[in-house]
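Dear support,

We are seeing what looks like truncated structure output for some complexes. This example has two components. We would appreciate it if you could run it in full and send us the complete token output so we can diff it against ours.
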Amino acid sequence: MQLVHDPSTLDQSPIAELYQRHWLIILVSIHQLVPSREDAEDLLLEVFLAALESDILSTLGEKQQLAWLRRVARNKCVDYFRRMTRQRAVPLEEAAETLYEGKESDPEQTTLRHEEQLLLRNRLASLTEVQQQVLSLRFGDGLRCEEIARVMNRTEGAIRTLLSRTLNLLRSIYIQAREEPYHDGSR
Amino acid sequence: MMGHDEEFVPERVNERVDWLFEQQHDSTLSKTYLVEDLQSIYGEYVGIRDRVRERLIERIADKATIQQSSTEPKASKKRGERPSLINFEKRKHQMRGLNLYTEQRLQRLELATAVCFAVLLVGSMAWLSSLARSLHKNTALPNSSLSSKMQVPVTPPKTTSGVYVGGKKSVMRLNTQTGEIIWTYSLDIPNSSVAKIIPANNTTYLAIVGDKTMVVALDADSGKLRWSYQIPSTQLNTLGNSLDLGVQDSSVYASAMTNNGTAILYKLDATSGKQLAQFSLNVPSVSGMEVTKDTLYITASDGLYAFDLNGNLRWQMKMAGDGGALVMTRPHVSDGTVFTALSTVRGDGSSDTVLAAFDANTGQKRWQSQSVSGQTFDLTVTDKAVYFGIARPDQTKSRGTLYAYDVQNGKQIWESDTVGAIEAAPAIADGVVYYAAYFPTFPDANLVFAADATTGVGKWQQGGIATGTPLRVSNGVLYAMDEHSVYALKASDGNLMWKFTPKDGVPSDQASFEVVG
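Here is the complete output from our reference environment:
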């Protein structure tokens, strides 16, 4: 009986397919809670290793599989925070994760950027999987709308509309954070 | 020059993002921060995706190796042993086996029913035949005459009327007159959407993309599954998937993009879904396809191709954009001619479009129209004219124009401007052309128009429908779909007959629909 997968087919295994389907939504949900990207990466791996070990996962439907992954991700995050509390992790780690460290020398500006990025992470976690996929293909893989349309098998017009609406939605975070304090002096 | 801090609009979102990224150091623009942050976050995410995937595959390989060494001497599973990936797959097979058993039982039951039905049918026909003979024996009608009348050519079954709507979670058939749901078929595939619907042979064929790429055939009467065919994910582009569909005679043709960036064509039996053949086509980035009796026409990012139905190239016309990327509409074959529109989309956001006609047998160009500003997404061909709409970015006055060109020589017949962009092919019936203009940030410009197809003179316009999805017209009813609802308008005056707004899932920004009147 052949028990070892041919290495060339490993990335076609059920667990790899499960990962291919859900990595983004699980990662975004983890990163919403765990600001450190290195830790988020480790937790993402832990979630899918748990899936690999799971007895029950193969008996679930696809929706339930995603729900299972989300639940495990949440539990892993809780465990992570427990560990962090016990280890008294360096509190500056989060600050080191700011996207543009050192770019804004003004402390007030740095705080504002930090707040914006936190809000952005939270808002990203509330987007639909399709919106996240479009953002990932546009900003992560660097594809343009026509290429995304081909990849996702939709019309270019639909992708343009989806992307522009999503960006307008996210943009409100920055407008509120930066412009509200200056409204007519009425505040 | 880009505006200061305006909203993102679909027509120029690519260019706006590029420009903002170049302006990263301009801290006065809130959007530069957004673009910076998104680029940073998703850039990191893609890195994480690849690293975790690699680590995961390593762990799977390690696990499999350990299992092999521990199980080689004795294949039996020890009590308490953790389930392996192999078991994971095996369980799936067992489950499939269980389903297969159930399916086999159902198939047997169906077979028995079919045999009973056939016996009854043959019996009835024999009775009818003898009745006919007895009725006509005095008129000296020869038996052969009756039997020859019965040997009419086999025609495909008529497809039941309905508005077939496919979205993220389900496919529905609606009553064409009332909009009431006749049946719903749930798509139990995560992140799936219906890329194309083809109602034919009383079957609703669906191209489904998402976490699985599938061709599904439903009984058009009942919405019950007839068959499904899953395209192996190993053959598909790992970035995502795409699927186009065509039905010709008794075959379904499905084209998808592979990992190496070329197309693959599957030929399936239209009745059973069984794969009849599979062909690799050396075509990059397919825009669309059309299947005729003997030829498959494909438009791609580098031109127009014609293949025979065994995947052999018959001819190709290589084309390139004029100083930018070439984006072609799907091919439309009519009366021995292939029509397509070629848009050039440039880095600065500008675009222009030409319409072209090619000999369907040789690929030789018959004519090419004058260039117009803007991009088109699809066109409609009649025996007199070719109609297409334009989406034009960066225009405050007119973002769209509908054009009519002479089908014989490519000369423009008329044009009509709209405030919103025209993102879909118009619908034509009874000498009237119907089209929709879409302006996401200016709802008053979201209008559906009806105009005389010969002159372009307007007949009516109706607001409240914001759509870039093609319109359909059938039996005096115009059907439209936007992100929220399906609408039926009286084709004669544009008055709303019914509107269907489902609770969720269908329609959506990624839905498609077809109408059989």
